[in-house]
């Protein structure tokens, strides 16, 4: 006989998303259990957001300093890689989760360590590291918050070459002399930026025409130019045919027959949901697949089951997953309390509307890239009648004061029928701090004639907002 404990809510996964679901359901008075098979705090805390930004910040700060009069001569030398890695280790709590466990405990949720699996409706089994199995039942909801994992494509020889994924790239204890990075998305370009800055000779191989293909095309062009200027070898329109490791050397053969030797290879070609071993088959769902949800994050056809964060494939970003967690917890609580009609209309309290209209993202490269809402191509494909307004950020006084030789660009995509902003993209040093103003404009659907009265401070880079609006008004 296995021990059975009943809760109002059972959460699978104790990353930022699962923690937020648990915190908010507990705050609403629901009894909640959280199940985690690895470190409490999840991918973001130990292998993604926190360690990657700890690696990138010194690289970007040095690049800015080298373009700052009076400071450039003082930062000509290499970074102290050992100090950067030590700081990275501090930011990940040395891959110990005591602090995160204490936080979960403080919410009043019960934490179970082990592999959690669905075992039919509202029922979860947890097998702990000692092989002991417990059963948890949920009166109201089970929330799947297990995140995603890196995909290693089935290239000949790749698996045997012990490739890096995002986890190894953010937790490595030294800078490899030569690093091949495969993939031009966010992980690929951020890690190429980090390790090139920390002393590696980076070769970035991209199958498509440019970097960061989900952003406006000019973003990838500026980021590629900067990587090349830093010494990286950036190749687009290039595919890998096979990989071989002989001792410490990795040989990468390209589809044109060329061979590149390296010390490590990082594969950053996509992610898959961590749903292959959580018992989906016991409730009629496909193991290993993405989970389709409605705007309250409830899995279609399963009124008790929620999928929150990466697993639903709506927006694979920590901040967006935490937003979904807030929506899901509100919906779970409302249904548990018998609220007859949830606010699931557009921008309602129980609808993750921002997933469709106002997803922000910052890419921490040099230069930084930041975007929210729809790109021009996405807006046109969606059938909107739009106009793109572009401006050279270097022409703004605040940019010329920020660094010498500032290179950057801004684009505002305007819905001509409603005269609101559908999307904004910035690329340039320091633009990550601009994106929340754009997020507010997009999410709030601020009319342009009202936005005209939002006066940017002088002399800041934010003055680009005025220039975009002036260009639109003619």
From TrEMBL:
NAD(+) binds at residues 183-190, 270. SUPFAM superfamilies: FAD/NAD(P)-binding domain, FAD/NAD-linked reductases, dimerisation (C-terminal) domain. Its cofactor is FAD. It holds the Pfam family Pyr_redox_dim. It comes from Streptomyces uncialis. Gene3D superfamilies: 3.30.390.30, FAD/NAD(P)-binding domain (3.50.50.60). One of its GO terms (molecular function) is dihydrolipoyl dehydrogenase (NADH) activity. This is Pyridine nucleotide-disulfide oxidoreductase.
């Amino acid at each position: 006989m296995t021990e059975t404990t009943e809760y109002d809510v059972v959460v699978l996964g104790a990353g930022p998303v699962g923690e937020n679901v648990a915190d908010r359901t507990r705050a609403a008075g629901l009894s909640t259990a959280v199940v985690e098979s690895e470190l409490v705090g999840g991918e973001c805390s130990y292998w993604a957001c926190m360690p990657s930004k700890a690696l990138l910040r010194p690289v970007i700060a040095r690049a800015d300093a080298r373009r700052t009069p009076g400071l450039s001569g003082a930062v000509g030398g290499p970074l102290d890689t050992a100090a950067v890695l030590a700081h990275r280790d501090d930011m990940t709590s040395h891959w110990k989760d005591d602090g995160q466990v204490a936080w979960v405990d403080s919410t009043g949720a019960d934490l179970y360590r082990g592999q959690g699996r669905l075992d039919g409706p509202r029922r979860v089994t947890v097998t702990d590291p000692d092989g002991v199995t417990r059963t948890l039942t949920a009166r109201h909801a089970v929330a799947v918050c297990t995140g995603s994992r890196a995909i290693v494509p089935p290239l000949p020889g790749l698996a045997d070459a012990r490739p890096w994924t995002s986890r190894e790239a953010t937790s490595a204890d030294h800078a490899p002399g030569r690093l091949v990075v495969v993939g031009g998305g966010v992980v690929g370009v951020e890690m190429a930026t980090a390790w090139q800055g920390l002393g590696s000779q980076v070769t970035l191989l991209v199958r498509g025409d440019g970097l960061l293909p989900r952003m406006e095309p000019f973003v990838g062009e500026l980021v590629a130019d900067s990587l090349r200027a830093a010494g990286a070898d950036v190749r687009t329109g290039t595919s890998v045919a096979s990989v071989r490791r002989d001792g410490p050397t990795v040989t990468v053969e390209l589809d044109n027959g060329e061979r590149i030797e390296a010390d490590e290879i990082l594969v950053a070609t996509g992610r898959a949901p961590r749903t292959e071993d959580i018992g989906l088959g016991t409730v009629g769902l496909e193991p290993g697949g993405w989970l389709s949800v409605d705007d309250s994050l409830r899995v279609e056809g399963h009124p008790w089951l929620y999928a929150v964060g990466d697993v639903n494939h709506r927006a694979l970003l920590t901040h967006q997953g935490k937003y979904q967690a807030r929506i899901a917890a509100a919906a779970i609580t409302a249904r548990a309390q018998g609220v007859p009609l949830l606010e699931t209309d557009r921008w309602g309290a129980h609808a993750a509307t921002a997933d469709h209209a106002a997803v922000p993202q910052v890419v921490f490269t040099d230069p930084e890239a930041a975007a929210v809402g729809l790109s021009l191509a996405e807006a046109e494909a969606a059938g909107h009648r739009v106009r793109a307004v572009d401006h050279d950020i270097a022409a703004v006084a605040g940019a010329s004061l920020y660094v010498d030789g500032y290179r950057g660009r801004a684009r505002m995509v305007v819905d001509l029928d409603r005269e609101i902003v559908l999307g904004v993209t910035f690329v340039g040093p320091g633009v990550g701090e601009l994106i929340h103003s754009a997020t507010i404009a997009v999410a709030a659907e601020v009319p342009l004639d009202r936005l005209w009265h939002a006066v940017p401070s002088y002399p800041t880079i934010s003055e680009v907002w005025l220039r975009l609006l002036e260009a639109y008004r003619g």
